[in-house]
Design a protein that fits this description.
The protein has 140 residues and is α+β, with helices and mostly antiparallel strands. It contains four helices and three strands.
Length: 140
């Protein structure tokens, strides 16, 4: 009789621990935060691809394009770049700053963590909302 009672108590305790573990997991990393992080990763990848395409254009033409559409519609590798925000489907902001530098901006869902985005070079750290990155074709 005692073993049946002990078994029931153990089963109830196990269920409580499982529910608590799931609740803590969801609280620490809610699905909305995971989705925001995934969208920001797509944005960073798009910015990195655009950065590469703009620098390749500069190398070929010795000038920066006035607009992203100049290289977006040229075919080749640039045609496969992610030119648009994954949510709004609007082109990322691009501005020429000097003869050799330009700015790329995106609207991020969340602030980046120090350890995430380790493969995105200069695009690693960003803030929630509109954030911009200034790049130079000479790597300065």
């Amino acid at each position: 009789m005692k073993t049946k009672l002990f078994g029931k108590i153990l089963a109830i305790a196990g269920a409580i621990v499982a529910v608590a573990a799931i609740s803590v997991s969801i609280y620490l990393n809610p699905p909305s935060a995971a989705k925001a992080q995934a969208l920001d990763q797509q944005r960073l990848q798009g910015l990195q691809q655009i950065d590469f395409a703009v620098k390749a254009y500069y190398k070929s033409h010795q000038t920066l394009p006035d607009r992203l559409d100049t290289i977006r519609n040229s075919g080749g590798l640039s045609a496969r770049s992610n030119w648009e925000d994954p949510v709004t489907h609007q082109l990322y902001d691009y501005d020429v700053v000097t003869k050799t530098s330009f700015r790329l901006c995106a609207d991020f869902s969340a602030d980046s963590d120090a350890d995430e985005n380790q493969y995105f070079g200069g695009f690693r750290k960003h803030h929630k909302g509109k954030d911009c990155f200034q790049e130079d074709v000479n790597g300065e």
